[in-house]
From TrEMBL:
Coiled coil: 60-87
Signal sequence bounds: none
Record-annotated membrane-spanning stretches: 12-29
Protein name: Cell shape-determining protein MreC
Keyword field contains Magnesium: no
Any one Pfam family match given in the protein's UniProt record, by short name: MreC
Family (UniProt): Belongs to the MreC family.
Listed NCBIfam families: PRK13922.9-3
Length: 278
């Protein structure tokens, strides 16, 4: 307490000067309309700027929660859309998918922890593992298209084999041509992928969409793979040389959806049994 008193005594002249300045400023503003208006306009402008900065900072801080909320909403919509499509497939009117088939796909939201695109074989790490029901072999998609397949898991994390992997093949359908081929990355550009085995008898146009086909048990059919970028003819072969623009932007991948096919094991077991009996 004594030190505080000593400080005021030592600084009394300066403190008196500041108080007089404040009083002068106060009297000028209250006795002059011009300076009063100028003061309030200036203070309001700076207050508005500070408020704008504060709101911008708050909005930025909330982006993570907003993105998480949007991811959960997309998960719900993906589930509903898949159930609708699977319950009303493009097939004869007499065919009706049972409820177990229509409801076989389940989606789990996961956040991307690590992601590579610069190698010949790329992987993605996500923050969901066996405790969340994730297991190897499950498909992974983004809000815009296909991503990859779960390779290994522990309790809290999983590593996903990216579609940007030299050994990753995806059964894909060229929608307008109604032709099924295989999408495979050539290891060059992370925004492009090749579509193989499309017959030259089929007409292909730039911009045609390519989606996952019905002929796989990992991904729901109709998940976007990409759009036709260029077409050519493979040397000494009867197939188109097609390059796609990938639907998923791997450079900005933040949230993904792990897809569980509840009937996958049953389907694969039956198919394996048939193969062994041949």
């Amino acid at each position: 307490m004594g030190e505080l008193v000593d400080f005021f005594i030592r600084s009394r002249n300066f403190i008196l000067f500041v108080l007089l300045e404040v009083f002068c400023f106060y009297f000028i503003i209250n006795t002059s309309n011009y300076w009063s208006v100028t003061y309030f306009n200036t203070s309001n402008r700076y207050a508005a700027q500070v408020l704008a900065w504060s709101n911008a900072a708050n909005e930025y801080a909330r982006l993570r929660q907003v993105n998480a909320d949007l991811a959960m909403e997309n998960q719900r919509l993906n589930t509903q859309l898949t159930q609708l499509l699977q319950s009303k497939p493009a097939s004869p009117r007499e065919y009706l998918a049972d409820s177990a088939f229509a409801d076989r796909f389940k989606y789990t939201v996961a956040k991307v922890i690590d992601n590579t695109t610069q190698f010949a074989n790329n992987y993605i790490t996500i923050d969901k593992g066996t405790d969340d029901g994730i297991r190897p072999g499950m498909g992974v998609i983004s809000p815009t298209g296909i991503v990859g397949k779960v390779k290994v898991c522990n309790r809290h994390f999983s590593v996903v084999t990216s579609i940007l992997h030299s050994g990753f093949l995806v059964s894909s359908a060229l929608t307008k041509a109604d032709e099924i081929g295989t999408a495979r990355w050539d290891g060059v550009d992370p925004s492009l992928i090749k579509l193989n085995d499309i017959s030259l008898t089929k007409t292909v146009h730039k911009g045609d969409s390519v989606v996952t086909s019905e002929r796989n048990s990992t991904f729901p059919p109709g998940i976007l793979v990409g759009y036709v970028r260029t077409m050519g003819i493979q040397p000494n072969r009867v197939f188109h040389d097609i390059t796609l623009n990938l639907a998923t932007n791997f450079g900005s991948l933040a949230f993904v959806y792990v897809v569980e096919n509840r009937l996958q094991a049953e389907q694969e077991q039956l198919e394996k049994q048939v193969e062994t009996e041949k």
